[in-house]
Amino acid sequence: MPDYESYFAAFLERQKDCRRSLKNYNFSSHPKLINFSSNDYLGLSRHPLLIERSQDYTRRFGASSGASRLITGNLPVYTDLEDNLAKALNKPAALIVNSGYQTNFSVLEALLDSSNFEEDPIIFCDKFCHNSMLINIRYRNRLVRFKHNDLTHLENLLDKNRLKKFKFILVESLYSMDGDYTDLKALTSLAKKYDAYVYVDDAHAVGICGAEGWGKTGEYSQDIDMIMGTFSKGLGSYGGYIGCSAIMRDFLINRCKGMIYSTGLPPSVLGAISAAIELIPHLHEERQRLRNYSSIVRDFFKKAGLNDGNSESHIIPWIIGDSEKAMRASLYLEEKGIIAVCIRPPTVPKGTSRIRFCLSSIHTEADIEYLMDTILTVEQRL
Ligand SMILES: *Cc1c(COP(=O)(O)O)cnc(C)c1O
To answer: How far apart are CA 101 and CA 239, in angstroms?
Structure first.
């Protein structure tokens, strides 16, 4: 018998200084630590209404939905949630799937399967798209990646492939490692020109962007075929969703394996989702505060001559370059009570290791001041 374990151990060896490990953080027992690595952008995970409804649903419906949605796990509340979500997203229909990762992975698998069409579809995907959009081996050989946020490059590639009948464009509205936005207006008009299908992952913008907080896609929802989002970031709980046509929703119910073969979300999560959907349109003040913080910190980066990439949002990377140096920066920050994790290759391109700061509306002004002061101190020590 081969020594199976030795192969896995060898993989770990090869990781060298990029080897990852899990770390515990207990923010409630260390009140002095400030978390700048959470995607809980509006602090909703701690909102009394989410907690209360989550508990209420558990009491009423139990700790599990007990089966996949197509069997008996489709709690009636799903219908309300999806109707409300569809309205909020300005799409005819919506479908909730168990996590954002599972949504991207399994919806794209269903959507892009060659057997749907009489000719292989070709897929154009931004270089920086999230792992969950790119992982599917089944369409890897039909994947064309364009330079990050470079719509001229995308247009060249579309033009080269203009004779292909089925073209799909995959982007994020707000990129999670760089904090920059896609120009959805230009993108959707490009898609129209080349008759391409548009899929937008709105994970980091939901809750924060848009007049009512429903993300970056709002204005362009009619020109975006599928909107994907997650409840696990700005919306404070867990789960993924799709906004789409009624036909597409039906298609996914019949075809999306991540929904068909997975137990429905637990009632506790559905309760939290329900509360978040109710709250989001009313959180104007929180969104404004987050925007203010973001521009203060980005201005500070410019003034201090630090590289924040092209951040335009509440996600602000401090691009340091060297992995070891970035790791040290993260450690020094932690010594000062600031939790901001280091992101290294392969999550980001080689030579662009960084600390990624995620701001939240529940940070205080003092937290933001302290962050900027501490970055300066740490920078001098590096
Ligand atoms: C976090 C993230 C996901 C996955 O969402 P989860 O609900 O955490 O599984 C998908 N897409 C993007 C762009 C993300 O950042």
So the answer is: 9
Judging by beta carbons within 10 Å of its beta carbon (0-12, 13-18, 19+), is residue 163 exposed, middle or buried? exposed
Containing 326, the helix (H) or strand (E) segment is helix 323-335
98 lines ligand 1 (CB under 6 A): no
Best mutation site among 99, 208, 230, 269 for ligand 1, i.e. most ligand atoms within 8 A of its Cβ?
230
- Convert the pLDDT of each residue in 214-241 to its tens digit: 999 998 999 999 999 999 999 999 999 9
For residue 339, what are its two tokens? Answer: 């939790």
Report residue 33 as tokens.
């630590």
Does the Cβ of 241 fall within 6 Å of ligand 1? Answer: no
CB 124 within 8 A of CB 196: yes
Tokens of 221: 């929802």
Question: Residue 27: what pLDDT?
Answer: 83
Reported as type and span, the H/E element at residue 144 is: strand 143-146
Q: Report pLDDT digits (tens) over 95-115.
A: 999 999 999 999 999 999 999
104 close to ligand 1 (CB < 6 Angstrom): yes
277-320: per-residue pLDDT in tens?
Answer: 999 999 999 999 999 999 999 999 999 999 999 899 999 999 99
Distance CA 225, CA 217 (A): 11
Q: Which residues contact 185 (CB under 8 A, 6 or more apart)?
A: 219, 220
For the CA of 238, the closest atom of ligand 1 is 7
Q: Report CA torsion sign: 205, 208, 211, 212.
A: positive
Q: Are 143 and 123 in contact (CB under 8 A)?
A: yes
- Cβ of 356 closer than 6 Å to ligand 1, yes or no, is no
The predicted structure's pLDDT at residue 137: 66
Contact 314, 208 (CB under 8 A): yes
Give the other-Cβ count within 10 Å of 278's Cβ: 13
- Residue 108 three-state SS: helix
Identity of the residue numbered 201: D
Which two structure tokens, joined as six digits, stand for 229?
Answer: 């989002």
Ligand 1, pocket-test mutation among 37, 38, 130, most atoms within 8 A of CB? 130
Ligand 1 near 130 CB (within 6 A): yes
Assigned token pair, 176: 């999670």
Q: Which among 162, 165, 122, 164 has a CA at the least distance from the CA of 145?
A: 122
